[in-house]
């Protein structure tokens, strides 16, 4: 085994600093890069806390459209998904800053990701060894896929942090049984489950830890029952409270196997070929990962981290459709991927009897790890790209033109990123007739960056506040009895 430098905490600190620096790349991106629709929804909750009222029990965002299996519109803009721990912290940063600044929202995600880097080190060190722990943290810190998804405005970085904290402190509490660890374990478990119940996939190794400690499954000692009751009650209370606001709960049943893709060839192609082999680990990193995963645990290693990998596989299978459609779902399993990629590297460098001599495996280990970062960056760098600057620039112009009380229809294929830049509540697509939206839900204005048929129709029928080649703002509260002739030349000319 390679000797570790005398002060591993110093190297951990350097890894954290490196992780922080690489996450500053394009931290000032507007909410218009990859998964902008989901980022906009998350950011809108924090902004509504700041601009309207801070009430984490009734989170609101910009979208007033029907977002659940119930076709009822959402005029109160309820957003009941995760309990808004992350959004609340972003709100407090806005208070300190004296205004909304999405860079602060990204910075909070970065801080949580760096905390996850530290937890990975202590978890792996506790069950394996210091060198593998440092390498696991390094891979987690600089893996290009994880760099991008740990500076997004999403709850996932916070979820990973609290899930790892739950794993670490509950595992230690089971072994050491101290009050401090009991309280820390409860705190991290409560937060993890309130953010997303998918934190439950981190429980399998904890259950194994309980079995090793107690030597039996039944009867369950009272301290574990107390722990479960206290730590899971807030989650169930939140779910009961959510049920009173059905119009604010997005449909989620499709995430499991809504399109029947689970275990089909396309499922493995997407998860193994595309996600593992291209976007997250790339081919070379996947080789290291599977070496680390499939090699038998050494005498000096425990089995608990293999169960973390197994539960991560379970997450991919249970939420089959969600994982195929959304790559940010795999943020939850990146710790396991980083840990076993590091283990695969260490096994190649250390050498095993079943391997070729170390004179061959050592250079391959360094080559594969280097290519993992190189190929990964080539795949991920496009995610930072803002594909349509018009929704940012023209949305901000519309924000200056519209009255503060405006309720807008801003069609953008259902994507709320344009609505977020306009900074008004409303609809990202036309779900009902204009008259219905006006009469029953208070629609006042129409904003578009396209001169489509609906835009032209509304420009002729209502008062036009702004008409440029890139932006149209229409006041739907006043009919345009005399169509403004000087607007017509601004319409895009038909090409022959």
UniProtKB/TrEMBL annotation:
<keyword id="KW-0472">Membrane</keyword>
<protein>
    <recommendedName>
        <fullName>Glycosyltransferase RgtA/B/C/D-like domain-containing protein</fullName>
    </recommendedName>
</protein>
<feature type="transmembrane region" description="Helical">
    <location>
        <begin position="130"/>
        <end position="149"/>
    </location>
</feature>
<feature type="transmembrane region" description="Helical">
    <location>
        <begin position="359"/>
        <end position="377"/>
    </location>
</feature>
<feature type="transmembrane region" description="Helical">
    <location>
        <begin position="304"/>
        <end position="322"/>
    </location>
</feature>
<dbReference type="InterPro" id="IPR050297">
    <property type="entry name" value="LipidA_mod_glycosyltrf_83"/>
</dbReference>
<keyword id="KW-0812">Transmembrane</keyword>
<feature type="domain" description="Glycosyltransferase RgtA/B/C/D-like">
    <location>
        <begin position="92"/>
        <end position="238"/>
    </location>
</feature>
<dbReference type="GO" id="GO:0016763">
    <property type="term" value="F:pentosyltransferase activity"/>
</dbReference>
<dbReference type="InterPro" id="IPR038731">
    <property type="entry name" value="RgtA/B/C-like"/>
</dbReference>
<feature type="transmembrane region" description="Helical">
    <location>
        <begin position="276"/>
        <end position="295"/>
    </location>
</feature>
<feature type="transmembrane region" description="Helical">
    <location>
        <begin position="104"/>
        <end position="124"/>
    </location>
</feature>
<dbReference type="GO" id="GO:0005886">
    <property type="term" value="C:plasma membrane"/>
</dbReference>
<feature type="transmembrane region" description="Helical">
    <location>
        <begin position="224"/>
        <end position="241"/>
    </location>
</feature>
<keyword id="KW-1133">Transmembrane helix</keyword>
<dbReference type="GO" id="GO:0009103">
    <property type="term" value="P:lipopolysaccharide biosynthetic process"/>
</dbReference>
<keyword id="KW-0808">Transferase</keyword>
<feature type="transmembrane region" description="Helical">
    <location>
        <begin position="181"/>
        <end position="204"/>
    </location>
</feature>
<keyword id="KW-0328">Glycosyltransferase</keyword>
<feature type="transmembrane region" description="Helical">
    <location>
        <begin position="328"/>
        <end position="352"/>
    </location>
</feature>
<dbReference type="Pfam" id="PF13231">
    <property type="entry name" value="PMT_2"/>
</dbReference>
<keyword id="KW-1003">Cell membrane</keyword>
